Amino acid sequence: MFKIEKAEFIAPGIKRFVIEAPRIAKKHQAGQFLILRLEEHGERIPLTIESANATQGTISIVVQSVGKTTYQLNSLEAGDTILDVVGPLGKPSVIENFGTVVVVGGGVGTALAYPTTAALKKAGNRVLSIVGGRNRDLVILEDEMRAVSDELYVTTDDGSHGEKGLVTDKLRQLLASEAEIRLVLAVGPIPMMKAVADLTREKGIHTVVSLNPIMIDGTGMCGGCRVLVGGKSQFACVDGPEFDASEVNFEVLMQRNRMYRDAEKRSLEEYQKRLKEEEEASTCQLEGVRP
Amino acid sequence: MSPVKEPSANPLTLKERMNVPHQHMPEQAPALRVTNFTEVNLGYSEELAKQEALRCLECAKATCVDNCPVGVKVKDFVKLIVEGKFLEAAAKIREDNVLPAITGRVCPQEDHCEGACLLHKKVESLGIGYLERFVADYEQRVGAKLAPNASPTGKKVAIVGSGPAGLTAAGDLVQKGHQVHVFEALHEIGGVLVYGIPEFRLPKGVIRQQIDKMREMGVEFETDVVVGKTVTIDELFGEERYHALFIATGAGLPVFLNIPGEHLNGVYSANEFLTRINLMHAYEFPRYDEPIVDLRGKHVAVVGGGNTALDAIRSARRLGAEKAYVIYRRSETEMPARIEEVKHAKQEGIEFRMLTNPVEFLDDGRGWLGAARCVEMELGEPDASGRRRPIPKAGSEFEVPLQVVVIATGTSANPLIQSTTPGLKTNKRGYIEADGETQRTSRKGVFAGGDIVTGAATVILAMGAGRRAAKSIHEYLSTGEWGTAVSS
What we know:
The complex is a heterodimer of chains A (291) and B (488).
Chain A: E1 2-11, E2 14-20, H1 22-27, E3 33-37, E4 45-53, E5 58-64, H2 68-73, E6 81-82, E7 84-89, E8 100-106, H3 109-122, E9 126-133, H4 142-147, E10 151-156, E11 163-164, H5 167-177, E12 181-187, H6 190-203, E13 207-210, E14 226-229, E15 232-235, H7 236-239, E16 242-244, H8 250-257, H9 261-289
Parallel strand pairs in A: 8-9, 8-12, 9-10, 10-11, 12-13
Antiparallel strand pairs in A: 1-2, 1-6, 2-5, 3-4, 3-7, 4-5, 13-16, 14-15
Helix pairs in contact in A: 5-6
Chain B: H1 14-19, H2 30-33, H3 46-53, H4 63-66, H5 74-82, H6 86-94, H7 100-106, H8 113-116, H9 128-142, E1 156-160, H10 164-175, E2 179-183, H11 192-195, H12 204-216, E3 220-222, H13 233-237, E4 244-247, E5 253-254, E6 267-269, H14 270-279, E7 299-303, H15 307-318, E8 323-327, H16 339-347, E9 351-353, E10 356-363, E11 369-382, E12 388-392, E13 398-401, E14 404-407, E15 411-412, E16 446-448, H17 451-454, H18 459-479
Parallel strand pairs in B: 1-2, 1-4, 2-3, 4-16, 6-14, 7-8, 7-14, 8-9
Antiparallel strand pairs in B: 5-15, 10-11, 11-12, 11-13
Helix pairs in contact in B: 3-5, 3-9, 5-6, 5-9, 6-9, 7-9, 10-18, 14-15
């Protein structure tokens, strides 16, 4: 059992949790993830670790409600517990002083890019960050990212905050204006990472993406998270989650992530139906006791 | 045939014993069991067990015992069954095997005790596995008193992995008075017993009972710890102050065929397919969250000929697969699966496509598997494994329409621990080097055994390694002497 110390929404549908997990907190390095299971009937889902505090024995994660498990997780509050949390898993990000690096964070991906960005900054890099979202509300961790970046650019699809446009529009500008970009790190939705890879491939700039395939055990045992990189099968849980973007087959990743779409939809619908029924039942009871 | 020397409770002459028919295991009817995941074998009654036990010839030189990787005193426990002393029989097995309800169900007895049984020369072997299962289940039902542990030694032993090797070592070591702590990477204890072997062959309840027994004996378990990631071997020796460590992490990474189309949706490794079903209960979706591809009405094949392959395809059948094939590149005689599983699979309507090998998985046009292109094989000269080498027949390619395929052709070493433990020697295939007798590795105080040393093998062989490791760890902790390290 792992206790939730703190839980707060940082954007609509996006919640940050601080969880007591001393073993993981002690070992975490930027770029690594954990796998959690909420309860006895729960599935195992991978989530990138946003930060860790070894002295307090806590880690934090940022979760967007997408499917049944993330909705259920985001209904939890401080004091609640999570049945299983295991990690830190995966290879840590490669942190060196590369020179000038660009970090691209899309939506909740910004939270996943944050620990690596902070580590890159600490290692002496000149960090140019682009964070984006569909609208103002979905641009997250702007202040945190600004604190670890030399320059920070914000984009929104609807122009409600920062520049109107996509993160890749801004990246295109930087690629044109900055002569010495040594590394691009992109974390976000698959189409965004693919678009970044297409832009930087032309320029031959080393680009790293953090992939999010479906996983179960997270230790290399099942092979469910295999991704096609450079024409070869790699396991995101042990060989990744970060890979050279120019070699990643994003179509296969997207196609494999759709494998359980029907089941995921059904799972979420039944969960929401159950919630509604429970709510109605409790409302009825309350009405019943009213004098 | 060896004469009976000791006094025997068995009233039958040797000849009469040979004439007692082998008692068959009652089982769920095939038509019924393909619709559920409950156990196929129903177990002997007391009468059936006593009747079967009467068949034992009580050989002076018990080859069954010699051929058991953990040395279960078969003759002695069978004799106790004849006498109706079932709890004593269970205790007798427990002297050498802490998991009798499990081995009684999944051990390939034909390769060990039953294969060595003298009866086998004339009639069917004694049903040693069935008898073992009977006494283990009887003990569970009636509730047995466990033998007390030796007095505490003050030594701490960490076991990495809670599969058959780890559990066996843990059981033996706790009885010797050591403090034993088992680390498990997954959320449930049991390793391959829970993620690999399906409910219909080894019910989870049985595993849980055996593990509860070990808890009662004083073994501590900690789930959600990936040694090598969550904590390293050096930290276990350092700040966590363990005196010895046994690595029993199992077989590791699934091997794919390296043929085109393996990334298509609908292509699974056996580990993933079985983990979804067994560990994650995908067959109970949506009551459990983890899904599996809907197999109802689908054509499904498994590639491979071992127990894992049969577990996968029999699970697929239970999940509604209309056609269920075993595709194997050699012939049925070379299949490494247990004989009983082959029999059960056939009864369940699984089709065996022997001497066949897939060469490509074909896209249905939407990113899903549509068919496998296969080639016919023929057997040539024996290869390094002693089995005849399968050779593709030129021009024999054909297509099998399939929506789901499960690859069950083996595993390779998981490097998680080796890569984070300086000084731990591995062989060229990446498995940990350990002495075959003492299970000692190249690192002082570190022992290893089971599939992480040998590559994929069986539950009972892993248990044998666990026993040897426990013996050797106990010696090391008692004497403090490490002896000669493993040479490479």
